[in-house]
Design brief:
Number of helices: 7
Number of strands: 6
Helix content: 40-55%
Order of helices and strands: HHEHEHHEEEHEH
Shape: globular
Strand content: 5-15%
Structural class: alpha/beta
Distance between the termini: 59 Å
Amino acid sequence: PRQMAGVKQLLALYEDVTPEVLFGNLVYFLKAIMPTCVRYAVRMAIHIDDPAWSVFGLPRIVTDKAALLRLLEAVPEPHNGVTLCTGSLSSNPQNDIPDIIRSLKGRIHFAHVRNTRHTAPGVFEEAAHSSADGSLDMYEIMKAFVDIGFEGPYRPDHGRMIWDEVAMPGYGLYARALGSQYLLRLHEDITKQK
């Protein structure tokens, strides 16, 4: 009960923060740091909101293609970019992830590539990386990265606990290792087909 009271107090601090206020604050911050980012070759890479809808009444502003393009247009410096997270974007099945990747050419600085499985509207769970295990077409996602010439780092992101592994939830090493090899194989196959 005391912990919930503390959480409620924290949430109350954000009662007047609308999506527009939050967006304005983000743009102000990014514009202020861009000269330093340019000077020291730091590439900012905002992560997609996860999930792509409000949680505890807090606004979400980085949820889809339109929101990402709006942010990149508001701060057009190339050092302002995105961590393209397929899992977060896939929380909204309306997001066309390959199209989003292609629309962000040159502005994706880091990628988290994972699969999710939708079981009902607004209900999803992390899945193994292969297309057959979830709701995403991982081949088309990796093809989009190859098509735009993405050479930045990407990781298989979250993993399940398999083979009796004990680890931090969502970060099973074995499942992520298998996922990395699956993604590398897709990348190699797609690259060789070009």
